[in-house]
Q: What sequence folds into this?
């Protein structure tokens, strides 16, 4: 056991180093003409107003937002999977992000536009999405079969997607703004958006820290958890609230981004083993890594334009989903 | 006595109309072959914004028309040319409600160049359906289309007058702008939350900007057949930093789009923004409509924004 812990410590150090490196590269590359060398010079403080504008005003905010979104989605995925005991329970796949995006689109059509309103609305939508998902897991036969849960989630996402399209038809003037809420992107987001989201992220972080031990106990089964003095029902409610805060906040910042909540905990479990407390720590560094890497490819792949980041996370997430499903025995959590 | 004279007059007019109409059977060259039209149709349905515009310019208010792109009624600039009678809505240009067309019992249907053959077969059973030949995107396409619609309506002269009026107005505006020393290059963009889409320099509005002496550019971002570019990265905004920036939006108020764009620091540091030479314009008119009346409305916008 000590060997394993030491091994994990090395892995963690490696991951954190990789995260710092990727964040730095994220400041250096982009769709524009300010290349890595000019960006480096701007970082070092030379008088190049164009380059320092691009680096500090455009790339730095989206890097920070990418880190926050990656952390939120990775942790939310791990939480949702732990509480539903299903390795495929991903907020994007199950319609939690779709719920958040739908709620925002609805308020936009109704005429709202305040940035602070958006976050609470998105979180409320995510909460409703979460509750729908978890009530589905309670239906006999669905909850015990991970794939069926994903099918139910896909149906739910499809329903919300068609409702969002309906609103597009109803009010095409809001179409441009709503389209953002259908695909998701880190481009053009401002630090204000991040600042507005920080409080709820912090609340969720504190709650997750407090819940880590009970969650680990819950993994042993409801009876065992009760025997250890925890309240499974209460834990579940807290997790749902946390997932709603995290996914709603991330969606309010970057739109719905699918598959991050699937891939990140999947990799984290492979590295950390079954203990949810370690998995969560690993998610905190793997999540930002994945989102930042996807965002960088989104920036340079079709320069001078940019790809929506959701396309890239789906590109690397879909094979993972297939791999998990095709594995001979679905790991049950 | 007066009523009698009036009555005789009306009957005479109607008779002469009938007689004249019968004599004026004509054959039109359309995308789906030759189509015969007789008389001066009054019951007309237009299934294209350019057709609605040409029809109004020729003095015929259609019984039915499609909505403007992104709206749920005809374009706002059209309102000024409508009397008490409003055209009924026949759906959107991509999805025409054939039953609504049938309900109007039209004598003539003016359709867009991109009408599909299946739709044509249906519509041509209702009334002679005029579909212009599709052409590569060019700023002057609207003139050919308007002339074809005008011929179908038997009001060629009115259309000719309207087209000439546009050319004269544009020429007049061009010399006024030259006198005022206004010129240079211009970009037409649509602002999206992630960045702008650059509109093609081959579009209708771009042609009018060219006519009044500005050089419309697209920074090589729009393909030959494209109507607009993909959403340009905010890092590349300097590519649309010209002398003038026309900011189109489907929002009712172009100013809203300008406000949205101004929230982005990448936008506010453009020279053209600092010089305050950004012109918010209505996307319904600037990126969707065409025809002689739309041209006049766009020239109104240009005159108001550019002439000191």
A:
């Amino acid at each position: 056991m000590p060997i394993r812990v030491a091994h994990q410590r090395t892995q963690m150090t490696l991951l954190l180093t990789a995260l710092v490196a990727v964040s730095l590269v994220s400041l250096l590359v982009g769709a524009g003409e300010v290349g890595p060398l000019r960006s480096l010079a701007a970082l070092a403080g030379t008088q190049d107003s164009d380059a320092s504008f691009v680096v500090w005003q455009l790339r730095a905010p989206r890097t920070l937002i990418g880190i926050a979104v990656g952390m939120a989605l990775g942790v939310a995925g791990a939480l949702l999977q732990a509480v539903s005991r299903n390795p495929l329970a991903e907020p994007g796949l199950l319609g939690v992000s779709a719920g958040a995006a739908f709620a925002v689109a609805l308020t936009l059509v109704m005429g709202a536009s305040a940035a602070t309103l958006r976050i609470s609305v998105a979180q409320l939508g995510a909460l409703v999405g979460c509750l729908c998902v978890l009530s589905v897991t309670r239906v006999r036969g669905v909850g015990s079969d991970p794939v069926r849960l994903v099918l139910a989630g896909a149906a739910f996402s499809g329903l919300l997607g068609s409702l969002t399209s309906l609103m597009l038809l109803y009010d095409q003037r809001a179409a441009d703004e709503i389209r953002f809420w259908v695909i998701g992107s880190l481009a053009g987001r401002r630090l204000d958006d991040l600042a507005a989201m920080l409080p709820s992220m912090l609340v969720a972080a504190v709650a997750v820290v407090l819940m880590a031990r009970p969650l680990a106990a819950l993994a042993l089964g409801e009876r065992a958890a009760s025997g250890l003095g925890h309240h499974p029902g209460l834990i579940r409610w807290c997790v749902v609230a946390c997932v709603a805060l995290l996914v709603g906040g991330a969606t309010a910042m970057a739109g719905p981004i699918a598959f991050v909540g699937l891939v990140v905990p999947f990799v984290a479990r492979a590295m950390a083993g079954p203990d949810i407390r370690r998995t969560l720590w690993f998610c905190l560094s793997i999540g930002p890594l994945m989102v930042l890497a996807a965002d960088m490819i989104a920036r340079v792949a079709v320069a001078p334009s940019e790809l929506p980041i959701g396309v890239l996370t789906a590109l690397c997430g879909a094979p993972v989903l297939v791999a998990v499903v095709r594995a001979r025995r679905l790991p049950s959590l | 006595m007066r009523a009698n004279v009036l009555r005789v007059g009306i009957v005479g007019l109607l008779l002469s109309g009938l007689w004249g109409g019968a004599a004026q059977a004509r054959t039109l060259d359309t995308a789906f072959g030759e189509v015969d039209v007789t008389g001066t149709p009054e019951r007309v349905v237009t299934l294209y914004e350019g057709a609605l515009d040409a029809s109004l310019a020729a003095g015929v208010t259609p019984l039915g028309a499609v909505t403007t792109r992104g709206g749920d009624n005809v374009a706002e600039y059209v309102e000024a040319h409508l009397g008490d009678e409003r055209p009924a809505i026949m759906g959107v240009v991509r999805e025409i409600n054939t039953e609504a067309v049938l309900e109007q019992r039209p004598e003539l249907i003016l359709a867009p160049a991109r009408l599909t053959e299946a739709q044509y077969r249906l519509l041509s059973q209702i009334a002679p359906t005029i579909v212009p030949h599709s052409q590569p995107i060019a700023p002057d396409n609207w003139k050919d289309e308007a002339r074809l619609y005008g011929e179908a309506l038997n009001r060629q002269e009115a259309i000719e007058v309207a087209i000439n009026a546009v050319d004269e107005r544009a020429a007049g505006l061009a010399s006024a702008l030259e006198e005022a020393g206004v010129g240079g290059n211009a970009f037409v963009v649509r602002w999206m939350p992630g960045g702008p889409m650059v509109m093609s320099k081959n579009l209708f509005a771009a042609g009018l900007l060219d006519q009044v002496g500005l050089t419309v550019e697209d920074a090589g971002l729009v393909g030959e057949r494209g109507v607009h570019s993909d959403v340009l990265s905010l890092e590349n905004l300097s590519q649309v930093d010209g002398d003038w920036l026309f900011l189109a939006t489907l929002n009712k108020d172009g100013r809203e789009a300008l406000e949205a764009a101004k929230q982005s620091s990448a936008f506010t540091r453009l020279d053209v923004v600092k010089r305050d030479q950004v012109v918010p314009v209505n996307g319904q008119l600037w990126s969707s409509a065409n025809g002689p009346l739309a041209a006049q409305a766009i020239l109104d916008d240009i005159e108001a924004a550019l002439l000191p």
Notes: Chain A is about 80% helix and 0% strand. The longest helix of chain A spans residues 49-84.
